[in-house]
Amino acid sequence: MKKELWRQLVHASGVFIVVLGFFITPELLILLCIGLVVLAETLFQLDKSHHIPLFSRILTTCKRKDDERGFIYFFIGITLTIYIFKFNMNVVNAAILILLFGDSASTLIGKRFGRHKLPFQNEKTFEGSLSFLLVGCTVALTQLPMLPAISGALFGAITEAYSPIDDNIPVPIVSALAMSLIIYML
């Protein structure tokens, strides 16, 4: 559990993307995300044959045995969300925050306290999904009104629980789509 806590803290540190979004254009933010993926992949490859101070320690502390590419999916999801929804950066920011904090909460709470499995999903729990919904809604409320925030967190939680691909890609996109639809229907 300690390793997972460190992993989720690194995951949540992606909030810097939201903060930078207040100071730079969406296009620069996209380039930054792509640059970070290239840098991280280069460091991953170097780490296989060389010890890299700080990075090797972080990687050893945070990496899951079966997931070497989660950070790439993380940045793909964020980059696509920025690209598709850049016309409303509040929606983009809310979707990124939902991914960062909702996903972390669902993992930590689900693994620690999860007792009730979701229907048709033996790997996820009701407790984890509920924590995703509550935390996701809370962070989305920093960017958007109540109804879009709830819809983004709800559809993000469902996507996180049932996505057949790594949830870092579809969660922010589905959340942003749900919030955008609610905003533009009102």
Automatic annotation (TrEMBL):
Residues passing through the membrane, by range: 12-39, 70-85, 91-109, 130-157, 169-185
Keywords recorded for this protein, A-Z: Kinase, Membrane, Transferase, Transmembrane, Transmembrane helix
GO molecular function, one term: ATP-dependent diacylglycerol kinase activity
InterPro entries linked: Dgk1-like
Protein name according to UniProt: Dolichol kinase
Taxonomic source organism: Methanobacterium congolense
The organism's taxonomic lineage, starting at the top: Archaea, Methanobacteriati, Methanobacteriota, Methanomada group, Methanobacteria
